[in-house]
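new request in #modeling-help
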Amino acid sequence: MTGPPRSDTRPFLVFGAPDIQEDEVQEVIACLRSGWLGTGPRVARLERDFAVYKGCLPSQAAAVSSCTAALHVSMVAAGLDRGAEVITTPLTFCATVNAIIHAGLTPVLADIDPATQCISPEAIEAAITPRTQAILPVHFAGRPCEMDKIMAIASKHRLVVIEDCAHAIETEYRGQKAGTFGDFGCFSFYVTKNMVTGEGGMILGRNEARIARARVLALHGMSKDAWHRFGDKGYKHYEVVECGFKYNMMDLQAAIGIHQLARLEQNWLRRHAVWGVYQQAFADLPIGLPTEPDLDTRHGYHLYTIMIDSNRCGIARDEFLEQMNAQRVGTGVHYLSVPEHPWYQQRFAWRPEAWPNAMKLGRETVSLPLSGALGEVDVARVLSAVRTSLSIQGA
Ligand SMILES: Cc1ncc(COP(=O)(O)O)c(C=O)c1O
């Protein structure tokens, strides 16, 4: 095996590095100087701008501290019965499943379609029991789930739908934006996401009463947030109307998000282009490539994932990760399937083999750098690092 040089001194190419520009820096400084760092006018502006981007009313968007928080309060606000079953995918970040559990509900896994890597509608249908009350699809890597089929199943069985849109801000399915199909859509602005606020998230809610409840739940169950108590309209009393959580977004975070959202489409175009370069450049390699998006959909291009099958590639997935690292190129794994983790095995007696498509993919998948911040030199480094890791010459 040729392998990378032993002491590569090039700077480390960070996986998922955000594209932060001067606008964000200046807005954060202005926020710091304004004397108001907490939830206030900048959060309200981000909610308005996000609602406009999604074609929703401002009252249908609520900013929160993370997508995990968004998922949790959405499920509480949905008013599901304690212990009710929520069907989701085994190929997701642990936060999706943890949020179900924290909401007092029972996660039930339905396997993915290996081509789309999203939850299979047929597997959802097969997992429904009399205790099922919700479906939680994840638009994996930014590719939309088959929402026509999922919404038909939901309406047939009267189920709530909560979309995990952590990868899918720009995603559309047959002309409709991700996060607007279900009762709730939950978004992440974590540091590696398509738009970032450091930590942060957004909830979109179809029903205005339910989203209003989610907003109250996200701030201790208080009827008024701090800006509405201490802001420029004079002090106002609040009432605690239920026992909520501390999940509010700060203006300091929204200061970043406002400008990230303004450049969302520009960054999407860049990731779209890089995704296309990878697809072409790797077409002759013995690795698995992501399926091209369906024509009537818009992919969010959040992750570019290849599959390393050791029999075809002559290298195991984890060894490939090490080879990439030795060339100072950051990678990710999205994800080892949820039942691979010990806690879920102990708590639910889950075994990865019960969801074979997610298990296989989780053991073979590698996410390559895909961010609006990637320059041509960075992309060229990724292309050559993949070939070198596979001991294949020439780019
Ligand atoms: C699919 C998915 N769901 C939920 C989350 C949780 O997002 P956050 O970190 O904003 O809580 C993530 C974050 O990585 C994710 O990838």
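bot summary: The chain has 15 helices and twelve strands.
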